[in-house]
Amino acid sequence: MKTSNESGVGNAINRVEGHLKVMGKAKYASEFPVPNKVYGQGINSTIAKGEIIGIDTSAAEKVKGVLKIITYKNAEKLKGYDQEMPFISTDTIAPVLQSNKVHYFGEYVGFVVAETFEQAQYAARLVKFEYKEDPKPTINFDKSRNKAFKPSEKSDYSRGDFKKGMSEADEVVTQTYNTPIEHHHPMELHATIASWNNGKVLVYASQQIVEDASIAISGTFQIPNEDVRVIAAFVGGGFGSKLNLDRHVIMALMASKMIGKPVQATVTRHQMFTNTNMRQQNEQIMSIGAKRDGTLTALSHETLSHTSIKEIFQEPCGMVSKMLYNVPNNLVTARLMPMNLQAPFAMRAPGEATGSFALESAMDEMAWKLKMDPVEFRVKNDTQHDLHANKPFSSRLLVECLRIGADKFGWENRKSEPGTNKNGNWLIGYGVSAASRNSPYKKTYAKVILKLEKDKVNVTIQMDATDIGTGSYTIIAQTASEYLRIPIDQITVELGDSDFPPTPGSGGSWGAASFCNGVQSACENAVSKLKKNRNIKNSEEVALADLLKRNQLTSFEAEGMAEPSDAFSKHSVFSFGANFAEVWVDKDTGMYKIKRMVNVASAGKILNPKTAYGQIIGGITMGAGMVIAEQSKIEPNFGNFITRSFADYHVPVNLDMANVDVIFLPEEDKIANKMGIKGIGELGITSVAASIANAIFNATGKRMRDLPITPEKLIEAGLEPGVKI
Amino acid sequence: MPKSIFMKKSDKSQQVNTPDELTADENIILDAMGLSASSRRKFLRQVSTGSLGIYASSFFSSEVFAQTVQDLPEQAQILLNEIKVNLRVNNMVKPLAIDSRMSLLDALRERLALTGTKKGCDHGQCGACTVIIDGKRKLSCLTLAATCEGKEITTVEGLAKNGEMHDMQKAFVKHDGFQCGYCTPGQICSSVALLEEAKNGEASYVTEDLKNIKSGLKLSEEEIRERMSGNICRCGAYNNIVQAFKEVHSGDDVMPTWEFATAEQMKKAKNA
User: CA of A498 to nearest chain B CA: how many angstroms apart?
Assistant: First the structure.
C-alpha cells in the first residue's frame, strides 16, 4: 500500500506518549496503585567468597511493622541451573537465597518485608550475618590470568593465515586497549510490585522483554507460564540491564507467596552495582598489518574478560574486527576468567561499543604510521562482502557515511601533525571512527483492533513490545497510521503486557524492525481480510471506515506476524555509521572538552527522525561517558565496588555534552525486511570512544589506550614515537 | 511458551472484561478516571485491562489528584516514630500520619499517589526527584516530609493549569527533551525553577563576573548546561533539553540538528 500521511512512517512527529511523560502520568513499575502492598528490601553479602555460618534476625524481628525475614534457611526451594557454568540469556532463571555459599561481594543473602519502606530499610540493616570468609577470593583481573578459559568453540575464529599476513606487511601496529567495568545505570531503579495470588503471578516490573521475564519467573518457580503475567507499560531506561530478570523480582514474589500480600521491591542505586548486571572489563590486544599503500594484510583481535563463578557471559568485542574491513588474514579470540563478581551481561552495543574502541583506535594508529588520512585509510579497506559470514551485506554505505561526514565536519581543516592546531592554552584535535552494528530481526506478532465510531475508525494495537525510551509507542502508531491510512490520533498503542501477542521485546537493536513489520503485517491482514470478504480487489483503495461499513461491521480484529525472510538469512545485515569529534585539551591540566560531533547513520528506513536522532545522541552521550569518566572500580582487598553511587561513578551530565549534528542517509534496506528498517539504538554508541580518543591524539600526540581518559592519565602519558611537539 | 498467536494467554485479551471481573486495583484505576457504571463498561469494551495503566494515566490530571488520593486504600500501617504533617501539594492540603524518617519523595509517591516525582538514586545525586518548594527547586529525596508543614510544594503534576500543559512541558514534547521519560519530571521542575533563577539574576558556577550580576539574565548555552547539570539523563537527551529550555527562556526556537543526506551528496560520496 503506497500511501503516506502526515503521521505515517518517516515523519518527525512528537512522541505519542510524550504528554504522559512530561506531566508525570506515565506509570513505571513501582507506580501502580496496588492495594495492600508492603515493602521488601534485599540484604547484601559483605564478603566476596565464603559461607554464612550464623544469622541473627532477632533485632530486626522486633522492629514494628516487620512481616517477614527471608534467608537461605527459610527460602522456598527454587529451580537451580541444570548445568555448571551455563551461558546466561534473557530468559535465564534467577534462583536466589538457595544456600549459605557466597560468591561475590553484594550477593543477596536476605530479604526483609515490612509495612513501610522505612521499616524495611531499617530492619534490613539489623539482620546480622556471620561469615566464614575464604581468604582468597578471585577479585584481581591481572592476577587471575592463569584461570582464563575458552568459553566455547565459537570463541575463536580465523580466516587466511594471520602470521603470513603480518609478515607481508610494511607497517605493523600491536597494542593493548583496556576498557573498565561499566554499569548501565538507567534512571529508573530496577523495581517491581509482585503479587502471588493462589498460584497466579502478577508482576509489574521494569523489564525490556516481558515475555522472557515471564519465562524466567515460571522457570524459577516451576509454575506454568500461563499463570505468570508481567507488565512493563513504561520502562525508565534499560541499556541492557533490564533484558534479563533480576533476583529482587524473585525475592519479592517468594515473599508475596509467604505473606499473602503484594510486595514492592526497589533495587537501591548502591545495589545497582552488584544486583543488576554490568559491562565486563576487557583487555583487547590488537595487531594490524598493512602495506605502504594502506592495504590491510592482517588483523587480530584477542580479548580477555571475566565472568562470574557460576555463569558465563562474554561480550563479543572481536565481532567488529571480523567484518568491518577487507582484510584477508584475520584472527579473533576470546577468553574468560571466572571471578568473584556478579555475572556480566549485555550493555548497549555489547562487543561493538568496546571492540570498536580497540579496532578504530588501532586503525587510527596505523593511519598515523602510514601517514595516510584516517578517512581515506578506512575507505581504501571497505568491502561490500562480509568476509566472516561469507555473505554479501544487505546494504553497506560506510564509504558514504565517512565522506559525507567528513564534508559536514570540515575534515579538510584537520592538521595531520598532532599539537599544531592551537587556541591559547587549548590544543585542538579532530578524530574519526567508523561504526557498524549488527541489525537483527526477530519473529513478532501483533494484533490490531478496529472500532467504527461515528464514521471514524479508532484503532488499538496490542503487542508485548516495550518502549524503554526508544520510541516504540510512536513508531508503532506511525506504522499503523501508514498502513491503515488513518490519522495517528485515532490510534492507541498498548504495549508491555505479557498477555499481548509476543514480540522479542526491546534489546539488541531488533525492536524497531521487528515491531513495525509485525504491526504492518497485522494492518495488512485486517485490510485484506475485509476486502476479501466483500470481493474487493486488493488494489482498489477503500477508506477503512467504508471498508467496515461495506462489511456491515462496527468492529474487527486481525493479527499479524513478521519474521526474517530467506533473503535476510542469505545476507549480512548491519547498520553503519561514522563519528567525527572535535576535542579541545588544556595543555597544562589535561582537562578536555568535546566541542562538537558529527554522526552519520546509515540505518535503513528512518521511521521518525526525531526519535532516531534521540537514539543517536543518546548513544553518543553514553559513548562519551566511556571516554570521560565511566568506570566501576573494585576494592583490591575485599572485592566490593568502591564506586557505589553517582558521586563516584560519573555519567555524563548536560555540561559534558556538546552539539551533535546527525546526518541520516536516505536508504531503505528491503533485504533486511519488508519495511526496509535497520537498528539504530546501538549504532550511536559504537566507536564514539575511538573518535574522541583519536581526536585527543590529534590534539596532543598522546595515544590513550585505557578508558576512561582522565586528565591525570593524559598528563602522565608520554608522546607517541614520531610526534614532534 | 510457544510463540503462537493462538496461545492461551493471548486469548485472554480478546475477552470483554466486565467490572465484576476486575481486580481491586483495576477498579481503583477506573474510579480514579471517573469512569463508573455504563461509561466503565463502554471503556472496557474498548480495552483490555492489561493496559489500564496507560489509559488511566492519560485520563489523570491535576484535577483528579484529590480523587486519586481518596481512592488510595487506607492502609492500616503500623508506624514507627509517627508524626502528623499537613502537606500542601499542588494547592491541595492533605493531612498525613507518617514515619518521621519518611522523605518527601516517598510521601509523594507512596502516600499521595503522586508518582510523577521519581526516585532515581535516593541520594541527592541525580535530580529525578526535583520538586519546587516555595518557588525553589529542591531534591525531595533529601527533604524529610515532616519538615514540609506550611510549605508550598509543586510537583510535575501541578504544573499544568486547567488541563493545559506548562510551556516548559510543551517545549519538552516538541523538542523531544526525553526518551524513557524517567528523569523528565525532575528536568522539567528544574527548568521551570531555573526560569525564575534567571529572572532573579542568581549566579552559577560559570557566571563570568560575580560582581556584576543583573536580574533578567538571558542564559547562554553554557549557562543552561551548567545549571541543568544536576539532573542526570542517562538516555542522553541533553541537547534536546537545552533546546526546549531555550525556547521557553528566550524564545530561541532552534530545532535539533538532524538532516538527511541529499541525492547529490550520496552521489558525490560514492564517486569520490
Answer: 8
User: Model confidence over B107-125: pLDDT tens digits?
Assistant: 999 999 999 999 999 999 9
On the question of pLDDT at A595 being above 50, the answer is: yes
Specify the range with the lowest mean pLDDT, choosing from A374-378, A484-488, B253-257: B253-257
Residue A646 has pLDDT above 80, yes or no: yes
Range of the domain at B109: 82-158
**Which residues 337-376 in chain A show a CB within 8 A of chain B?**
none
Cβ within 8 Å, pair A35-B159: no
What band does B271 get if pLDDT is binned at 50, 70 and 90?
confident
Give the residue carrying C-alpha cell 567488529.
A320
Distance from CA of B58 to the nearest CA of A (A): 6
Identify the CATH assignment for A346-440+570-716 out of 3.40.50.720, 3.40.50.1220, 3.60.21.10, 3.30.365.10.
3.30.365.10
pLDDT (mean) for A704-715: 98
pLDDT computed for residue A403 by the predictor: 98
**Average of per-residue pLDDT values in chain A:** 97
Hey, are the CB atoms on B180 and A25 less than 8 Å from each other?
Answer: no
Query: Any idea what the CATH number is for the domain that residue B141 is in?
Result: 3.10.20.30
- State the Cα–Cα distance between residues A685 and A688, nearest whole angstrom: 6
Mean pLDDT confidence for A10-17: 96
* CATH for A32-135+184-273, options being 3.90.1170.50, 3.30.365.10, 3.10.150.10, 2.60.40.420: 3.90.1170.50
What is the per-residue pLDDT across A541-553, written as a single tens digit (0 to 9) for each?
Answer: 999 999 999 999 9
Q: In Å, what is the CA distance from A75 to each residue of A111, A251, A504, B245? A: 10, 9, 32, 51
Whether A682 is a known active-site residue: answer yes
Round to whole Å and give the CA distance between B187 and B206. 20
Q: What's the sign of the alpha-carbon dihedral A527, A532, A536, A537?
A: positive
Number of independent structural domains in chain B: 3
Q: Is the CB of residue A225 less than 8 Å away from at least one CB of chain B? A: yes
pTM score, whole prediction = 0.92
Chain A, chain B: beta-carbon pairs less than 8 Å apart = 344
Cell of A484: 491503515
B151 and B173 part of one domain: no
Residue of B nearest to A225 (CA): B1
Q: Residue A370: CA atoms inside 13 Å, Cβ hemisphere, count?
A: 28
CATH classification of A18-27+443-563, choosing from 1.10.8.50, 3.30.230.10, 3.30.365.10, 3.40.47.10? 3.30.365.10
Taking the CA of residue B143 and the nearest CA in chain A, the distance in Å comes to 14
A contact residues 408-437, partner B, Cβ 8 Å cutoff: none
Do the domains spanning A18-27+443-563 and A346-440+570-716 agree at the CATH topology level? yes
Q: Do A19 and B58 touch (CB under 8 A)?
A: yes
Q: Is A680 helix (H, G, I), strand (E, B) or coil?
A: coil
CA gap A17, A494 in Å, rounded: 11
pLDDT at B205: 81
pLDDT of residue B47: 38
Cα–Cα distance measured from residue A264 to residue A290, given in angstroms and rounded to the nearest whole number: 58
**CA-based Rg of chain A, rounded to a whole angstrom?**
27
Ordered by start, the domain boundaries in chain A are 18-27+443-563, 32-135+184-273, 346-440+570-716
Q: Which of A436, A187, A184 is nearest to A324 (CA)?
A: A436
Position A29 scores a pLDDT of: 96
Task: Answer whether residue A713 shows pLDDT above 60.
Answer: yes
- Residue A642 near residue A580 (C-beta atoms within 8 A): no
Which residues from B are below 8 Å from A232, CB to CB?
A: none
Tell me, yes or no, whether B30 lies in a domain.
Answer: yes
Is the pLDDT at B168 greater than 70? The verdict is: yes
Is 90 exceeded by the pLDDT of residue A530? yes
Q: Which pLDDT value is given to residue B256?
A: 73
Same domain, B22 and B90: no
pLDDT at A249: 98
Residues of chain A with C-beta less than 8 angstroms from the C-beta of B7: 226, 502
Distance CA A32, CA A192 (A): 10
Mean pLDDT, rounded, for A690-694: 98
